[in-house]
Specification:
2 copies of one chain form a homodimer. Chain A is an alpha/beta fold and 343 residues long. Chain A folds into 2 domains: 167 residues, NAD(P)-binding Rossmann-like Domain (Rossmann fold, 3-Layer(aba) Sandwich); 147 residues, Dihydrodipicolinate Reductase, domain 2, CATH 3.30.360. A 6-stranded mixed beta sheet of chain A has the order 3-2-1-4-5-6, sandwiched between helices. Chain A has a 6-stranded mixed beta sheet with strand order 8-10-9-7-11-12. In chain A, helix 4 links the parallel strand 4 and strand 5. In chain A, helix 1 crosses helix 12, helix 5 packs parallel to helix 10 and helix 7 packs across helix 8. The two termini of chain A are 23 Å apart. The mean pLDDT of chain A is 94. At the A-B interface, helix 1, helix 5, helix 6, strand 12 and helix 12 of A face helix 1, helix 5, helix 6, strand 12 and helix 12 of B. Strand 12 of chain A pairs antiparallel with strand 12 of chain B, so a sheet runs across the interface.
Chain lengths: 343, 343
């Protein structure tokens, strides 16, 4: 649209400055002019907090300070003597970007960060699954009470849109179920096992060597990561109050090359499928998927098929992981906060 | 969200009352309470205009009047002595739903309907490709001048979201190209030819018998329908001012079962692919697609892969046609008008 509009300043903090937090900072740096031009948003990072230290600058943190934080050179005089919680509470800003590591048992430290931000009257955009899996209802009630937004597109499917797809693009539809591959590590392992006829342990090791699987892969391969994502989908899209305990989970560690070969001969592939429906069933398990089904995607891709009453089945496919992909989802969330009148 | 909100009355007209227009009326009837509860919108149809006649009722047209219009029983006293243009101009309402048949040469009668609605200060939601292919720039400039919205999700991919996906879910991304299967009839024909080894003419006839291909299938099988959709994508997403003349088009009428077999043996399928990029290239042609590519979907499905700078490749798959599917997209457009602060 060619309508003129004034530019609105949006001050943000980034809490947790690992790959995802850095991705957000990098994307905002690259896109600053474009965001002002296209969306009328002048996004300024006024605080970054991490275990390594804290930078605060009301005029926008400098590239030099960011570099110092990354390399741990606290001598540069850019560091503030504050905790993460103090930055969230005491530095004036509009949106807190939460990107600390996920803890699915306690939700911490993300949970405290998000509560502090909402209590302080700030919107929240997060990639952290833990707080949403542990205390979804409490967080959304707090956000509603404070009339602030809590957005979390990056928690499920990385750059692959799902919450915004359901709430925006499919508005007016009733969602019957969501079913898909929500863990790229498992998909990579099963795809390689099927292609090469190699055993699980061999492919896992290969995946670890190229950085697709973590040194301790249990959260991924035992299906816990997929289960956590299902919990967030259940709570957000189906209005449930589920936790990980409500999910029936089987991982991929027992899948053999023989099973994949048998499936192949019958026209199927085996994928780790997460499924959640409006009746409140939550299940993660290896399932046979017909080769010509849209859910049959390979490599590290994620996919979700959303069953609706009007639009039928809508499938979306994208990269489920990666810092720039997560940052993409978080940037869309950030823009969405300033372009949406109602939830 | 549990925030309370007051209900806003949205009066709409439906112009063109074939399958899609009826689908919209049916969906609004079914969903009226849900739309009030979830979105705070009380959607009332105050006018329906069609070649068969016109119904106007400021309190909402009755089911009986709709039935009478469908069956042509003008004797029921429900008909108004007005033209479509008079309904659009003179009946007080907020949104005109345009669902007359597409004419890709002149854009009429949809073009006149949309211009009249915008000039009269009404938002427009349309499934009609013609006006957008012929006069995109003029229509969007008029909408901007009048500060009204013109939405057209249903014109490309039916229920499969694409415009809202790019503008909302992928906000902040630069779109590099869009590539996909945008015509379900061609996809059905090529899928059946590949599966059964049958010649084009045979499968076309079969598709005509079951209502998937029209009696005069040339718009579909010669690639014109796909070309028109590319023009709308080029203009809307890439800011072009393209028309059908700018598209290089080859259809599927020359594809042989032999070609499909050769492709199959090499690990490919042949699909009618439409592609548009930010450099302004618009092309429709049968293309080889690797079997494991997300673009390889069968039957009447549509698919689009959106190449972006941050999110990577995002693919969306859905039913490209059907009255309820089109109505789903139009309903999402309607809700979107009342939930979006900026375009």
């Amino acid at each position: 649209m060619s309508m003129k509009r004034s530019t609105q300043t949006v001050r943000i903090s980034i809490v947790g400055f690992g790959n995802v937090g850095r991705g957000v900072a990098e994307v905002i740096r690259r896109k600053r002019e474009e965001l002002a031009r296209r969306y009328g948003l002048d996004i300024t990072i006024v605080g970054i907090a991490d275990l390594r230290g804290v930078i605060v600058d009301e005029n926008g943190v400098s590239e030099e300070a960011i570099k110092a934080l990354k390399t741990g050179h606290k001598s540069m005089g850019t560091m503030a003597d504050m905790t993460s919680v103090e930055v969230i509470r005491d530095v004036e800003h509009e949106v807190m970007v939460e990107a600390t590591p996920t803890n699915v048992e306690t939700g911490e430290p993300g949970l405290t960060h998000i509560i502090t931000a909402l209590e302080s009257g700030r919107h929240v955009v997060t990639s952290n699954k833990g707080p949403l899996a542990v205390e979804y209802k409490r967080l959304m009630e707090l956000a509603a009470k404070k009339e602030k937004e809590l957005r979390f597109e990056a928690t499920v499917g990385g750059a692959m849109p799902i919450f915004s797809l359901v709430k925006g693009d499919l508005a007016g539809n009733e969602i019957l179920s969501i079913k898909g591959i929500l863990n790229g590590t498992c998909n990579y392992i099963l795809t390689r096992m099927a292609e090469e006829g190699l055993p699980y342990e061999h492919v896992l090791k290969e995946a670890q060597e190229i950085g697709i699987a973590e040194a301790n892969p249990s959260q991924d391969v035992e299906g816990v990561d997929t289960a956590v994502k299902l919990v967030i989908l259940a709570n957000s899209i189906f209005g449930r109050n589920a936790t990980c305990k409500d999910v029936e989970v089987t991982g991929i560690t027992e899948i053999t090359p023989d099973a994949l070969t048998l499936a192949d001969e019958a026209g199927y592939v085996i994928k780790l499928i997460g499924e959640v429906d409006r009746e409140g069933n939550l299940k993660v398990a290896p399932r046979l998927v017909p080769k010509d089904d849209p859910l049959n995607v390979g490599g590290i891709l994620n996919v979700a098929t959303i069953k609706t009453d009007l639009a039928g089945d809508i499938t979306v496919i994208g990269k489920g992981a990666g810092p720039i992909e997560a940052a993409s989802a978080m940037l869309s969330d950030l823009i969405g906060i300033y372009s949406q009148k109602v939830q």
